[in-house]
Amino acid sequence: MKWLLITLAVALAGCASQPAAQDKIQPEVQRMAQQNGESRQPVLLRLTQAASESQLQQLRDLGVVLGAVTGPIVSASIPTVQLSSVAALPFVERIEASRQRPKKH
């Protein structure tokens, strides 16, 4: 019985340490989604580790259009209505606004 209680406590502590889906979405992305009313948001996804093919497929299944995948960073375009669903995926650490960088000459 004691072992069961310890296992349950550890499992619940692990759940409590995961941020809520909305907390994973950068405030700037949330503002852009509300203000622009665009159907898609260009973003950078920060993952907990380099994505597996299965994880990339989960993103595609939510309507995410994938761009470059470099280790745990994925450039993508997400349907605005799916932002929370993508953030709720356990392997998604953060959703950040995508910005164009000036070209270096």
Automatic annotation (TrEMBL):
Organism of derivation: Bacterioplanes sanyensis
Protein name, as recorded: Uncharacterized protein
Signal peptide extent: 1-21
Keywords from the UniProt entry: Signal
